């Protein structure tokens, strides 16, 4: 599906646009909670998820893209649509965008998961 990268990079998702508008980047969240670590705690999970996707692209029929296509989409999305987000937030949102665009994840499910995480964070 090598022609899909341009299509994927041009469509938007309200749930991701809301994330960008909130501007809840790790430096701001870390400062709010008194955390000094410059690396978000979720970065290792993001790296692991990317590694698993990259290894699964050729073997999982639900993943309709190759390693190169996923990386090309990430590069394009982080440089354009999500350029105002810092790294690694732009990488995370670009990955979510690609997975939403390809139907690997559902926008409503993502909203529910984000709400659950937000609820846990705000309970502290």
UniProtKB/TrEMBL annotation:
This protein's record includes keyword Nucleotide-binding: no
An MF annotation (GO) of this entry: hydrolase activity
Alphabetically ordered keywords of this record: Hydrolase
Superkingdom in the source lineage: Bacteria
Pfam families attached to this UniProt entry: NHase_beta_N (PF21006)
Record InterPro entries: CN_hydtase_beta-like_N, CN_hydtase_beta_C, Elect_transpt_acc-like_dom_sf
Every Nitrile hydratase beta subunit-like N-terminal domain range: 59-116
Tagged with keyword Chaperone: no
Transmembrane intervals: none
Name used for this protein in its record: Thiocyanate hydrolase subunit beta
């Amino acid at each position: 599906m090598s022609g899909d990268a341009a299509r994927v990079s041009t469509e938007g998702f309200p749930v991701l646009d809301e994330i960008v508008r909130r501007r809840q980047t790790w430096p701001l969240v870390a400062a709010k909670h008194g955390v000094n670590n410059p690396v978000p705690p979720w970065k290792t999970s993001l790296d692991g998820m990317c590694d698993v996707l990259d290894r699964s692209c050729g073997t999982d029929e639900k993943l309709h893209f190759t390693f190169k296509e996923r990386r090309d989409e990430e590069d394009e999305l982080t440089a354009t649509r999500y350029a105002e987000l810092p790294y690694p937030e732009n990488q995370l949102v670009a990955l979510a965008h690609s997975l939403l665009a390809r139907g690997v994840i559902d926008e409503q499910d993502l909203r529910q998961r984000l709400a659950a995480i937000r609820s846990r964070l705000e309970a502290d």
